[in-house]
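task queued by scheduler; priority normal; single chain, no ligands, no partner chains; default sampling; output format set to structure tokens
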Amino acid sequence: MQELQQDQLRTGRSRPVEAVGLAATSKRAWLTLAIFLSCLFLYLQVFVPPSTARLATGDQAIYLNNGARMLAGEMIYRDYDHFTLPGTDVTYMALFRLFGVRAWIPQAVLIVLGTSLVWLIVVVSTKVMTLASSLLAGLLFVTLPFSSWLDASHHWYTTVGTTAALAVLLEKRSSARLIAAGVLLGVATFFTQSAVLCVVGFAVFLLWEHRVEKTPRTLLLEKEGALLVSFLTTLTACLAYFVWRVGLRRLFYFTVVFVVKYYPADWFNNWRVYGAGRPQLHNWTTWPDVPAFAFIHLLIPLIYILVFVRYARRSSSSVDQQWKRLMLINLTGFFLFLSIASAPAYTRLYAVSPPAVILLVWLLNFSPKFGHGVVRLLWAMVLIMGITRPLVTQLRSKAYLDLPTGRTAFFEPPIYDKCKWVLERTRPGEYFFGDHQIAFTLRLRNAARVAFLRPTDYTRPEEVEDAMEALQKFQVRFVSWYIGLDGEKDAARHPEGNHLAPIRQYLHEHYRLAQTFSNGDQMWERTR
């Protein structure tokens, strides 16, 4: 392995694994070991051995809640509101139908998503680098960006689909491969509509390849057609049922109109989020997130610019197969970045990072002195993170609850206290409002079209009105009111977008403050 790295750095040029004569069995063995270690690494972060799932927090709780609602017969856009296409909701609904609504499902999904991306990254990387460098790219990804955002939301599903499409097209762009890539991109877009930009990126690559190869225009049109028709056919097939049930106009409103007009109302859904969310140094449990945060902001989108510059300065005027593959990786990564550029939160940057990580390792090969030292540093980082992250997770103080979704480990005391308080006072199937995470973990029914409120235009006046009607209709006993609804700075800067006054008044008239938790969240109980 070390000999391969030295040969690569000495020549200043990455070569496919086949060129250095590694046996296929040896490659499979190394890849299998990398996948096994990645699986173990992720398991020790999302489970407490042997089988207690860590509480699913973050954005994934929204989709878990939506999947449970869909399992109960509700329909996205008709019975509950959401801004992404239905892929993630459908996936969790299907898993819940197969295994029941269980707390371990999102954590097992994270292991599958993470190891799938490691495998895809190595597969792609071995087309432009040695096996040693390919393994570095895969392990660097899973130990830094992926493990820093263990959240099985729609972004990771889209990244898997897009990276798989890249792997299919990297070797050659035959009609069959273009059709397969179009199908994969259609599935990826079914999870996140902005992934349509990746189709544009692939189309741009085909145009670039046509120009450098000077192929007939008819061949270009055939290739573009195979890609676009298969993409549109797949996406249409995925959406046809939902268009039939709720109508194209309503689907278009939530996935396009709402996203353009109201989604950016929250500061974390627009450009202001860039650089925000830095790990808190006073909390030792977040220290392993510091390298990933710095790494990803230095890497994206700078790496794509550097590769374009390297291409412009290449010594030969011709474009070989190596550069075609690199340009496809680069354009895929660049358009993945564009798909989240309007709201470049660090979590979204993590989700679109696989091409960037591949290109970083490749680019280091062109500076033998500097690159060799950085490669050693990156391997050291992989080793340190590979040991540190599981240890931090397993050594953290934790508490347990036996919930309707299964035994669950809690790492945050305020969330544990809140969940325990509601658990002791409710039964599965009761109506509840205000906290999608509590609703999912305790199998409570969301009373309104929206599962949570925001003090900005993200929550529309009609949704507030619907929530009040639902509270009255179902005589909802408990309402969760989190501290951000009253004191968020972004809401104070834009008071015209805060539509919560009517429901706040409704709570004071029909509910009493039953409990205030240590994080400031409140639980209100109906009095009349």
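post-processing summary
- The radius of gyration is 24 Å.
- Strands lie at 47-48, 52-54, 399-403, 406-410, 431-432, 445-446, 478-481, 511-516, 522-526.
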